[in-house]
């Protein structure tokens, strides 16, 4: 009499389930990593879109007020900024050719070095130079 096995043994079922669990675990790791990268990318996009706005706000404060530090809020994120005067130069409207002296001044150019930091983390975000003209 011949015996016919038409099913899988317990060992085969265990091996198949281990292979299935390894495949599911690797897919979940890849999916989780992808989700984390998407979140970081979204944060970077929001921050980079905010940088132009922040630089414009700081430039406005430097040009139209005497403030050299302050706080800017954008996208519900607070940034502290500080501007350090690097140099101040007079603009000449004409120069006396014989002596090389400035005859009349048309104002001053101010060069500021501006940096702003994320207020919560104190992480320095950006640094830029800004030139501003003010009449004398």
Summarize the structure.
This protein has one helix spanning 10-64, and strands spanning 69-74, 77-96, 101-118, 124-134.
How do the strands line up in the largest sheet? 1-2-3-4
User: How many distinct folded domains?
Assistant: 1
Shape: rod-shaped
Overall structural class, as computed from helix and strand content, comes to alpha+beta
Helix-residue proportion: 40-55%
Number of E strands: 4
Query: Would you list the SSEs in sequence order as H and E?
Result: HEEEE
Largest beta-sheet characterization: 4 strands, antiparallel
Report on this structure.
By secondary structure, the protein is α+β, with helices and mostly antiparallel strands. It has one domain (about 10-135). It is built from 1 helix and 4 strands, in the order αββββ. Strands 1-2-3-4 form a 4-stranded antiparallel beta sheet. The model has no long low-confidence stretch (mean pLDDT about 85). It holds the Pfam family N_methyl. This is Prepilin-type N-terminal cleavage/methylation domain-containing protein. InterPro entries: N_methyl_site.
Strand and helix layout:
Layout: H1 10-64, E1 69-74, E2 77-96, E3 101-118, E4 124-134
Descriptive keywords:
1 helix; single chain; alpha+beta; 136 residues; 40% helix; four-stranded antiparallel β-sheet
């Amino acid at each position: 009499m011949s015996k016919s096995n038409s099913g899988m043994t317990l060992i085969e079922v265990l091996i198949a389930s281990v292979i299935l669990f390894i495949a599911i675990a690797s897919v979940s790791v890849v999916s989780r990593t992808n989700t984390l990268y998407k979140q970081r990318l979204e944060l970077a996009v929001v921050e980079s879109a905010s940088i132009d706005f922040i630089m414009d706000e700081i430039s406005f404060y430097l040009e139209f007020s005497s403030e050299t530090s302050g706080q800017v809020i954008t996208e519900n994120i607070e940034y502290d900024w500080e501007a350090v005067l690097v140099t101040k130069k007079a603009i000449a409207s004409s120069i006396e050719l014989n002596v090389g002296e400035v005859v009349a001044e048309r104002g001053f150019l101010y060069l500021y070095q501006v940096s702003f930091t994320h207020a919560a983390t104190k992480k320095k975000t950006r640094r830029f130079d800004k030139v501003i003209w003010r009449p004398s």
